Amino acid sequence: MAEQQLRTVLEGGGFFEGPRWHEGTWWVSDFYRHTVSRVTPDGAETVVVEVEGQPSGLGWLPDGSLVVVSMKDHRVLRYADGTLSTHADLTEHCGGHLNDLVVTEGGQVFVGDFGFDLMGGGDARTASLKRVDPDGTVSVAADGLQFPNGMVITPDGGTLVVGETLGNRYTAFDLGADGALTDRRVWAPLGPEVTGRTTEEVLGQLAVAPDGCALDAEGHVWAADAVGGRVVRVAEGGAVVDEVAAPEGLGVFACMLGGDDGRTLLMCCAPDFYEHNRAPVREAVLVATEVDVPRAGRP
């Protein structure tokens, strides 16, 4: 696990999340500036759209339109031709803020939520993974997950892997062409079973808290460790085979592989994730480093 050389891509964020590499540029949400932006590899930022309900996960439907989570009002929004509209309202199925998403090649959107009032210090509760079909129909795809967060889909489209941030693990499902999830199993155990209810109790037991993530060409997941100030490269089965530390004093809450050769690892960094600390200031940064194995072949 050699020391990596980090470079700053962009400064002055509130809290960056949901990084993606799409059509030769980075895309990223900023919770507290309420923006979704494109960021060139050399750090030039262009705000694409503002989301007052607090943007998070990003993706693209088969027709090329952008979908973005609006966290606080539990909606998945669609942005196309300069217009922002509601693709689906998931309020009925949310116990906390809506969070990250992933989109299948068929246009189904999988999205998780916190499950409880994280920022208000509520007791930890499980949450569901929701599926939004192309026509906007919402259904519960899986239940009982411990803070379902960053997700990846294998290049063959047949497996969905989701990080359970408060569960010390990645969980996998077989993914059908119709969006059905079957054969639920632990893909990578990252620590012992978590007990306790309060947020503080749970956070104190996490070996790795998998947040935003990216899949590489060898089938490993690069995961932001929300409590460890690092990103870790996780193999199926749970072995941590590499890691990159964040700059001193910062945590990492999402990451993505991109760049022209797929070997640039972008990290969303901030001092912590608490809204009352992050919203008033502009201390979040995007940093990047180069890794040996490129991203998986799926866009």
Give the topology, please.
Blueprint: E1 7-13, E2 16-22, E3 25-30, E4 35-39, E5 45-50, E6 55-60, E7 66-70, E8 75-80, E9 83-89, E10 98-103, E11 109-113, E12 127-132, E13 138-145, E14 148-153, E15 159-164, E16 169-175, E17 181-189, H1 199-203, E18 210-215, E19 221-225, E20 230-234, E21 240-245, E22 251-258, E23 264-270, H2 275-278, E24 284-290
Antiparallel strand pairs: 1-24, 2-3, 3-4, 4-5, 6-7, 7-8, 8-9, 10-11, 11-12, 12-13, 14-15, 15-16, 16-17, 18-19, 19-20, 20-21, 22-23, 23-24
Query: Helix share of residues?
Result: under 10%
The biggest sheet amounts to: 4 strands, antiparallel
Span of the ends, CA to CA? 27 Å
Which range does the strand content fall in?
A: over 45%
The ordered H/E elements are EEEEEEEEEEEEEEEEEHEEEEEEHE
**Number of helices, where a helix is a run of at least 4 consecutive DSSP H or I residues:** 2
- Residue stretches low in confidence (pLDDT < 50, at least 5 long) are none
